[in-house]
């Protein structure tokens, strides 16, 4: 009776939301909580310790294209299970280390697992299982991750305070593995064909009986990677990630303009609310009006937010509104970016196209965060950084328009196919 009422695609989404949410919130996003206690006990500089995050980003950058191929070739359930063993298992092993070199070495399996859990696994499986409501599914995936982050951060912080950083690593990593591992094995399936069903919203009566279970509509990877639209998609990913990474510097920016630290921290909650709201709203809108229009809307909202931050950083209400809008824009990483890839190139070779384009996300994580810091060190303010962000928004608006123009050309030349 349950299967008749609830399509298995939504069961897949539940499993993905828990896996991706905990992978991001409890593992990736809690890394900063460990830096101070680890560096103090091991007597190493925080800068030296954080180099492992750079190693992780570089491994992610290099491994993304291979990750897409693996998800195409092998069972997603098996690949994601191995991935969470690598990511969560490595995180737990950090608790046994006595040298900073251990973090550098273990950053490799940590990142390899994270590529599937936190970057490409969710979008690829949603593309396979949802013929309609893809945007909503991505929005839910992103929103749940944000909610889990609200609870995970204080829990991990409490574990460090109560039991020490070593036990906190072991408990957090083991806990995520114990929770997520069985969920992936029980709930994840590669294609709708594996459950003798069709993708949610698929009205094609023959889909269930097709030997090739993929919804093979779109432009193949070999053709796509040589097009301007593919380059512009990677640039879009790079820019939205580069801009979003400025959020780490926002509290410092506000304090420099006269805001109390406590007030600045409280205003940052507006950004978190914006991410949650944006995830759901953008998800719904992409289903209704398409990724192109929603992408342009997100860039305009982000541009307005940046102008407000630059022009009126001393007004609490204005800054709160700006941070809310900036948070709404930031949610585009988890919602608009995956649907942009699908809208431009279809489902035919989605996993390879999305994973290769996501190199822009990884590259931005390496470059942008320290760049804002260096700009501040040299100029003594974030003004130049905010002006650069405004220029990046304009570039992205132009990129979206040109990319979809290029898609029209590709379709007219017959590159979009269904076989």
TrEMBL record:
Its main location: membrane. One of its GO terms (cellular component) is plasma membrane. The chain crosses the membrane at residues 49-66, 78-97, 103-126, 138-156, 168-188, 229-249, 261-282, 294-312, 318-341, 353-376, 382-404. InterPro entries: MFS, MFS_dom, MFS_Riboflavin_Transporter, MFS_trans_sf. Residues 9-408 form the Major facilitator superfamily (MFS) profile domain. Keywords: Membrane, Transmembrane, Transmembrane helix, Transport. PANTHER family: RIBOFLAVIN TRANSPORTER RIBJ. This is Inner membrane protein yhjX.
